[in-house]
UniProtKB/TrEMBL annotation:
Protein name: (wild Malaysian banana) hypothetical protein
PANTHER family hit by this protein: FASCICLIN-LIKE ARABINOGALACTAN PROTEIN, FASCICLIN-LIKE ARABINOGALACTAN PROTEIN 7
Family membership noted in the UniProt record: Belongs to the fasciclin-like AGP family.
Listed PROSITE patterns: FAS1 (PS50213)
Presence of the UniProt keyword rRNA processing in the record: no
Alphabetic keyword roster: Cell membrane, Glycoprotein, GPI-anchor, Lipoprotein, Membrane, Signal
Organism: Musa acuminata subsp. malaccensis (Wild banana)
Length: 261
């Protein structure tokens, strides 16, 4: 009969397709190859100004980027290169811990260099920092002599500048070609701050407070009066998540900071 013939042909075809050696495992020719997590669509335009104004608060950093027009250099790199960009964004409290005159006394050129110093002209995921920590130094956007030292220890990533070694406290955005990581200090190169350490001689319980605030968020947030407007790392993540533009957030990476500790 006709149907039987069709079944027969199909069976024969199936047999001829599946090789005898793999007969035990059923072939799945119509499934896409699974080990390909890379998203197919081309990377979309990331508006850095918008990203930095909704994530954060990063107003001080963003204002300096706008004032020095470094934002255009960064945006151009994000838009037009395959290399991409990695930006380290100090929290608001990091600027507050600097002596008032330190940034105020810089020339416009020095300010420009300082903020170019806060980025690598290449995209790095958090896991890439493991490899970078094997290098002596990594050149920033400000040029070869303005380098940073990466230290990766048990999932904690520190960014070494001459006067400060802030650590990455959260991943704000990390989808090639753009990475934005929050750090808990301003990067301070010797070539700009040659005379003396620009950090204010303030007592320094603040960096540890971010750790304890994860455990007792409300208490410590109220306790630290001058910094009460600043959210903790975990608080940051929650309102970042509410921004539709940023739905490519790599929370897993952010989480790995903690998990691998
Ligand atoms: C980027 O975002 C800023 C702030 O929302 C906006 O003023 C600017 O026009 C945007 N730029 C582009 C190219 O969309
Ligand atoms: C970046 O790309 C956006 C969208 O294509 C464009 O509007 C903007 O002018 C570009 N900016 C730079 C600095 O290349
Ligand atoms: C910054 O400039 C002010 C006024 O010109 C000056 O009094 C002060 O000593 C300067 N501070 C530093 C650290 O150079
Ligand atoms: C990191 O280093 C490991 C081992 O040295 C290497 O296999 C891997 O390809 C490197 N990854 C990157 C992104 O360079
Ligand atoms: C990076 O490390 C090298 C070697 O330890 C050191 O000489 C250099 O001063 C460091 N650079 C910075 C910016 O910390």
């Amino acid at each position: 009969m006709g149907l039987a013939a069709i079944f027969c042909v199909i069976s024969l075809l199936a047999l001829s397709i599946s090789s005898p050696t793999t007969a035990q495992t059923p072939p799945a020719p119509f499934l896409p190859p699974s080990p390909a997590p890379a998203p197919a669509p081309a990377p979309h335009f990331v508006n850095l100004t918008e990203l930095l104004s909704v994530a954060g608060p990063f107003h001080t950093f963003l204002n300096y980027l706008l004032q020095t027009q470094v934002i255009e250099t960064f945006q151009n790199q994000a838009n037009n290169t395959k290399q991409g960009i990695t930006i380290f964004v100090p929290k608001e409290s990091a600027f507050a811990s600097l002596k008032k005159s330190d940034l105020g006394n810089l020339t416009q050129d020095q300010l420009r260099i300082l903020f170019l110093y806060h980025a690598f002209p290449k995209y790095y995921s958090l896991s890439d920092f493991k490899n970078l920590s094997n290098l002596n130094s990594v050149s920033t956007f400000a040029g070869g002599q303005y380098a940073l030292n990466i230290t990766y220890t048990f999932g904690l990533i520190s960014i070494g500048s001459d006067w400060a070694n802030p650590k990455i406290t959260s991943s704000v955005y990390s989808t090639a070609p753009v990475a934005v990581y929050e750090i808990d200090g301003v990067l301070l190169p010797l070539a700009i701050f040659s005379s003396d350490p620009p950090l204010a001689p303030a007592p320094a319980p603040a960096p540890e407070a971010t750790k304890t605030s994860d455990i007792t968020p409300t208490q410590s947030a109220i306790g630290a009066a001058p910094k009460s407007s600043e959210s903790s790392t975990s608080g940051g993540s929650s309102y970042i998540a509410s921004v539709p533009l940023l739905n490519c957030f790599v929370f897993a990476l952010s989480g790995s900071l903690m998990l691998t500790m």
